[in-house]
Amino acid sequence: MGPEAFVELFQDALYLILVMVCAIIIPGLIVGLLVAIFQAATSINEQTLSFLPRLIATLVALMFFGHWMTRMLMEYFFRLIEEIPQLLY
Question: What GO biological process, any one, is recorded here (predicted)?
């Protein structure tokens, strides 16, 4: 195995991280945008108003996607463990 195998594993790991982070961050961003639009429409300039809904959205996303993310990490880890002998020779 050459360096391209390690590059492929690294690319897969980065893609996995990107997908998992997006699953957590995007709901918080959407809720933050909706709260910001609401604050702009009502002229409420309270900074703490946007924190709690984003926090709740992030926690709900973690609860909803947690099992899926754990399964993806386990599949990648098992594939990585299976490929170790091929990478060493």
Answer: bacterial-type flagellum assembly
Q: Residue holding tokens 């050459």?
A: 2
Task: Report residue 28's pLDDT band, with 50, 70 and 90 as the boundaries.
Answer: very high
Helices 51-88 and 3-42 pack at an angle, to 10 degrees, of: 180
Domain assignment of residue 26, given as a range: 1-86
Neighbours of 57 (CB within 10 A): 21
pLDDT in tens, 71-83: 999 999 999 999 8
Gap between the Cα atoms of 21 and 14, Å rounded: 10
pTM of the model: 0.78
Report which secondary-structure segment, H or E, holds 5. helix 3-42
Measured from the Cβ of residue 66, the count of other Cβ atoms closer than 10 Å reads 12
Letter for the amino acid at 44? I
